[in-house]
Amino acid sequence: MEKLRNMWNLTVDELLNKVTWPTWDQLRESAIIVLIASVIFAAIVWVIDYLLGNGLTFFYNFFK
Question: What does DSSP assign to residue 19?
Answer without folding.
Answer: -
